């Protein structure tokens, strides 16, 4: 797919992967609108080249309004990238409040965006939805109970939609990054193997969009590792990841 002139809405673009991808898409000739809650950070990312439309995706009304503004400013939405996300490591105690916050942003927030985008794209009989999940959704990881559960759910949700929306001319891409250097990972104290920069992530996702890959996984080392991890039997997985005392 040639990105020149494509009208793209990147949600979750005030920092990190979303911001880097928005810049990359601009460089490749797309017309880009960016959304997130922090209006100042968003403005800085947008500069003179993008349209900034602040919005909290946990609020369905705000998402509806923002989608309307973006569609009006760009003249329609060809591609929507859903990158907004929340991560907090689960401590020793199971934290229900934190679990709910992951659900609200990563899952209900994504659903709010989909609820606006799908009818619009169905009307156009064309469109592309790019959901940013994570390799953390591939297997259960201690500390990632809430985050991983929502990322696994996103993978499943996006896969189901890819089938359902095909007859409407709407394509659905699932992005599963490994570790990326962003605000989200800046406080992590555990090792983050094969970590890449947000700019590298932005380029990998833009390449995947151009190729129209159903699943975009990077870096390749993490992709390979997680593919192998899915073959490990459940008991062996638990044994391997149990901390030694
Ligand atoms: N970094 C990694 O290692 C990594 C790995 C795999 C997957 N991912 C996924 O990649 C995506 C982007 O994360 P990132 O690493 O780029 O982190 P980030 O820099 O913290 O970016 C997260 C973005 O989501 C926005 N956001 C959060 N809550 C929101 C809400 N309620 N409404 C609207 N926007 C909201 C944030 O903006 P505001 O705070 O301004 O709202 C920010 O723009 C996430 O879905 C994350 O799960 C990240």
Automatic annotation (TrEMBL):
Coiled-coil positions are none
Q: Which UniProt keywords apply?
A: Oxidoreductase
Q: Which family does it belong to?
A: Belongs to the short-chain dehydrogenases/reductases (SDR) family.
UniProt cross-references to PANTHER family, sorted A to Z: DEHYDROGENASE/REDUCTASE SDR FAMILY MEMBER 7B, DEHYDROGENASE_REDUCTASE SDR FAMILY MEMBER 7B
Q: What is the protein's given name?
A: SDR family oxidoreductase
């Amino acid at each position: 797919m040639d990105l020149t002139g494509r009208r793209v809405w990147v949600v979750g673009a005030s920092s990190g992967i979303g911001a880097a991808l928005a810049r990359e898409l601009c460089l490749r000739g797309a017309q880009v609108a960016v959304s997130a809650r922090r209006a100042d950070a968003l403005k800085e990312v947008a500069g003179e080249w993008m349209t900034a439309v602040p919005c909290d995706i946990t609020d369905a009304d705000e998402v509806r309004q923002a989608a309307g503004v973006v569609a009006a400013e760009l003249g329609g939405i060809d591609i929507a990238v859903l990158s907004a996300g929340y991560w907090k490591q689960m401590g020793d105690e199971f934290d229900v409040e934190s679990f709910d916050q992951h659900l609200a942003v990563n899952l209900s927030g994504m659903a709010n965006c989909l609820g606006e985008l799908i009818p619009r794209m169905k009307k156009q009989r064309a469109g592309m939805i790019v959901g940013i999940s994570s390799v953390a959704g591939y297997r259960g990881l201690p500390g990632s109970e809430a985050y991983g559960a929502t990322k696994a759910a996103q993978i499943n949700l996006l896969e189901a939609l890819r089938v359902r929306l095909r007859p409407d001319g709407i394509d659905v891409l699932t992005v599963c990054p490994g570790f990326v250097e962003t605000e989200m990972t800046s406080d992590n104290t555990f090792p983050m193997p094969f970590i890449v920069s947000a700019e590298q992530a932005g380029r990998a996702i833009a390449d995947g969009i151009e190729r129209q890959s159903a699943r975009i996984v990077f870096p390749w080392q993490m992709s390979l590792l997680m593919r192998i991890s899915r073959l490990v039997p459940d008991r062996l997985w638990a044994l391997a990841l149990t901390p030694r005392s």
